[in-house]
Fold this protein.
Amino acid sequence: MNGIISTISTLFSASAIRVNKLKSIIESDEKNNIKKNKLKKLCETRWVERHDALITFKELFLYIIEALDEYENNGSKSDSSSKAAMYGSAIRKSDFLVSLEVAVFIFSYTLNLILQSKQQDLSKALNDVVTVRASLESIRKNVDSHFKNIFSEVLKIGSKIDVDIKIPRVCGKQNQRANVNVTNPENYYKITIFIPFLDQIICELRT
C-alpha cells in the first residue's frame, strides 16, 4: 500500500499537467470542503510526515480515482495511460483499501510522537512513547470492536467506487501470503492486516 501510494504521488507530482488535472477535478466538486488539492510524497524517515501524506491520499481518494480513469480512457496509448490503468486497478483492491484505512487509524496515535526535535527531552520522549504504546495495547485488547469501525469505513469507500470488499482467492498451499481459514472478509482482514500491523507497531515502540 505504501509503495503504491508513493508511486502514484510521484506520477502526479512529476507533471504540471497532471497536478493541474487533479486540482481541477477537486475544485469542480462544489460539495467538497477539502482544502488540499495536491498529493504529498511519503517521507522515508519522518512518520509524522508520512501520516499526513496518507491522510491526504485518503481525503483525495475519489478524485484520484477519477483522474486516473480519465487518463486511462483518454484514448492515448502513452506510457502514462497504461500506468493510470494499472494504478487505478491497484487502489481498487480490497487489501489496499483495508491497508490504507488501518494505517491512517494507527498512525493517528503515533502522530504526536515528535521525537526528532532540538527541544525534545529524553524523559518526556520516553513518556510519550509509553503513553502511545499503552493506547495501542488497549486497542489490541479490544481489537474486534475497533476493527469493526475500520471495516465499516472501508465498506463505505468500496460502495462509492463500486468495489465489493472480499477475500482474495486462496489455495490449499499458500507460501506468499496468509492463508487464513475464514469466510468473512472482516475477520480475514482483521487477522491478516490489522492485528499483524498493530502488533508490529507495539513491538517497535517497546524496542
